[in-house]
């Protein structure tokens, strides 16, 4: 007689799938655990073998019964440690008269009934069958009789499967190692399952991560979101569509496939081209950047209706700055001098006027810095998380403003460098120098407002790595004086970049 032990935990909020909580919320992790239990049990039900469920002793077992069946026998796992618990489960079922027993976990993804049938078939000639998992353990084990020695190894190591095979051979047991099964324990396990390939982290930010994988021998990127700073219903699809719309300009990565939101991917994801190269160097690559931006801003798209339309961009930027700076204005440890400087810049920007409307629209990135550029023989602009339909001058100003260039590279562009960039840009696309100057000043306020907000968040234990010193440097006298010099002339006069 044949039987399958379904070895699982009772799904309990914040106590299941804890290694996924750096990617999923507690509720999302719980729902994923339930999905895996339900799908794997459904595969078991498609077979004619007896099923027994051995569960953890925490939580309400009725949850498991609702996910699986009321008509199978449930046993609380007994023993100390995983090895002893599995050994006791095997003994319990063999004592009922079964002569071939498989034990499998509930974290498996992509399980097929043919796999289980083959495992039982192998037990006709073998004493032990094992299906390895990616972490060095195993997802399934099958026996024809109890064997305590197999479960006395250390289960916290990354060579559990290997050591189990060695123990079996030393005991004189015939052993068959089956094809690998995939468990879902970490976010990387999810991504591997989605793209059907090993993945390696390339870069990760606050809201996104890029993983390298191979498809047909060619490197690609799997881009996945953890959150978003843009208020749209589906931020991942929004970015995917932006790249799709800009494909013809030839300076953004190609996109290949979009993945809908699911229990595995709460924000969705997409596959895109992997581009070799380096980040932009402000001192060497400015003219390259100007040409790339001009091509993007000149891009002809079928429709801009799917993008956010900013009718009053200066008002929108001002309100965004107010929202960010509010955290510091309400901060009980706020520095008086920093408050005074923030008020100065808010007043200066407000006096420039907030109600101008977009006149010559195009798709803009809104978040450009040197890391948005891949420089190689054919250079590109990447990271299109927050594009909108706006004015090219906004992109140019944000990219060149000292509050942008100084943050990552300690660079403050000189006046002749900025003018050289703009002259090169104008060879491909016309722009309004007066409007550029105004956006330049709004971009400065935006950078300072973000830094003010980040100072508060850092004090409240938000992990922002090693940027605290950089943020503090934005409010030092020499940098503030430099920024104030940029506001000496009004936009209605000859544009002054203050450099």
Automatic annotation (TrEMBL):
<dbReference type="InterPro" id="IPR011009">
    <property type="entry name" value="Kinase-like_dom_sf"/>
</dbReference>
<dbReference type="Pfam" id="PF09837">
    <property type="entry name" value="DUF2064"/>
</dbReference>
<feature type="domain" description="Aminoglycoside phosphotransferase">
    <location>
        <begin position="199"/>
        <end position="427"/>
    </location>
</feature>
<dbReference type="Pfam" id="PF01636">
    <property type="entry name" value="APH"/>
</dbReference>
<dbReference type="InterPro" id="IPR018641">
    <property type="entry name" value="Trfase_1_rSAM/seldom-assoc"/>
</dbReference>
<dbReference type="InterPro" id="IPR029044">
    <property type="entry name" value="Nucleotide-diphossugar_trans"/>
</dbReference>
<dbReference type="InterPro" id="IPR002575">
    <property type="entry name" value="Aminoglycoside_PTrfase"/>
</dbReference>
<protein>
    <submittedName>
        <fullName>Uncharacterized conserved protein</fullName>
    </submittedName>
</protein>
